[in-house]
């Protein structure tokens, strides 16, 4: 089976002041299979959001390949571009900032429908009611405005708007970060059930490792623009290999009062270095307790340590 999305050696550099180059996404590769949820996790500023937006063409890539359904996206014809803009959608962190406050929920959900489908007004109305039902909102929401909705309801509208175009692939960019903890699980469960029902493929972007666990099939951990570890969800939580992943995951495992385990929280020393001038060799070496000589001279590449479990570290 071919992956729906294949990202190969993707880089996205920005030009900052004084000729400095910010390597926001630095040589990132991964595949996403149809119907799968692949998550990119890491602290803010690690490049996960830039990566998702570059894949969707919101930002132009610097180099590398983004292959969607077997075709390189940068060589799309006009028609293929239009199909891609319909099939690949995004759900945002803050649904409020991207919902026009003067538009009713109905017109917000319909926005993209005009461009991609020829439907009568009655058909569009039916479609909106069906979408509201799918995301768990009552039909009387059609005439409401965004400010009348709670955060969770607004995120449901954001999801309905993405679904309006019958997408195959959705980039979920921190979709629960702005929500109360009690609402977060509801939105995650909604995304999971929609995925099953509509056979959706997700790229899920989050810094919240406890929520990511519920929705992900596989996870890539990013640090300073690069993936340092990539594995199936169970493997990576049970047996994190990269020192950065271990530190990141120890924070949630240590607070898991139900596990009864004696996990010690690993404290990360020092600040995240600037992506303008990252450390030579392994970018994590300035904060790594296991760093050795080779770590400053050679960039570790992702190696498959167990089936499907990749890590970029000289310890392995
Ligand atoms: Fe630490 Fe070296 Fe591994 Fe980097 S390559 S994580 S510095 S041991």
UniProtKB/TrEMBL annotation:
Q: Which SMART domains did the record assign? A: AAA (SM00382)
Q: Does the keyword Transport apply?
A: yes
Keyword Coiled coil annotated: no
Q: Which GO terms describe its biological process?
A: peptide transport; transmembrane transport
Q: Which Gene3D superfamilies match?
A: P-loop containing nucleotide triphosphate hydrolases
Entries under SUPFAM superfamilies matching the protein: P-loop containing nucleoside triphosphate hydrolases
Matching Pfam families: ABC_tran, oligo_HPY
**Which residue intervals define the domain ABC transporter in the entry?**
5-249
Q: Which domain of life is it from?
A: Bacteria
> Which GO molecular function annotation, any one, does this entry have?
ATP binding
Which keywords does this Swiss-Prot/TrEMBL entry list? ATP-binding, Nucleotide-binding, Transport
Which family, according to the similarity comment?
Belongs to the ABC transporter superfamily.
PANTHER family membership: D,D-DIPEPTIDE TRANSPORT ATP-BINDING PROTEIN DDPF-RELATED, TRANSPORT ATP-BINDING PROTEIN
Name this polypeptide is given: ABC transporter ATP-binding protein
State the encoding gene.
oppF_2
């Amino acid at each position: 089976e071919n992956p729906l999305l294949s990202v190969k050696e993707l880089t996205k550099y920005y030009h900052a002041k004084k000729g400095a180059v910010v390597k926001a996404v630095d040589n990132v590769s991964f595949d996403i299979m149809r119907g799968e949820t692949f998550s990119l996790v890491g602290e803010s500023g690690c490049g996960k959001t830039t990566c998702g937006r570059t894949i969707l063409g919101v930002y132009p890539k610097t180099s590398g390949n983004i292959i969607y359904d077997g075709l390189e996206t940068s060589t799309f014809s006009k028609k293929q571009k239009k199909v891609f803009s319909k099939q690949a959608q995004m759900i945002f962190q803050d649904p409020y900032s991207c919902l026009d406050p003067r538009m009713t929920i109905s017109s917000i959900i319909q926005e993209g429908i005009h461009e991609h489908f020829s439907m009568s007004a009655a058909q569009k109305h039916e479609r909106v009611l069906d979408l509201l039902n799918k995301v768990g909102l009552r039909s009387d929401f059609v005439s409401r405005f965004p400010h009348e909705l709670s955060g969770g309801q607004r995120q449901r509208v954001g999801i309905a708007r993405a679904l309006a175009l019958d997408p195959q692939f959705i980039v979920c960019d921190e979709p629960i970060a702005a929500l109360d903890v009690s609402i977060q699980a509801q939105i995650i469960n909604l995304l999971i059930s929609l995925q099953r029902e509509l056979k959706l493929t997700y790229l899920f972007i989050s810094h919240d490792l406890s929520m990511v666990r519920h929705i992900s099939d596989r996870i890539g951990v990013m640090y300073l623009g690069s993936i340092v570890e990539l594995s199936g969800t169970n493997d990576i939580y049970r047996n994190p290999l990269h020192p950065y992943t271990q530190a990141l995951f120890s924070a949630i495992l240590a607070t898991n009062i139900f596990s009864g385990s004696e996990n010690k929280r690993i404290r990360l020393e020092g600040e995240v270095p600037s992506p303008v001038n990252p450390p030579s060799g392994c970018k994590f070496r300035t904060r790594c307790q296991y760093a050795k000589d080779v770590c400053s001279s050679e960039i570790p590449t992702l190696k498959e340590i167990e089936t499907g479990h990749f890590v970029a570290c000289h310890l392995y």
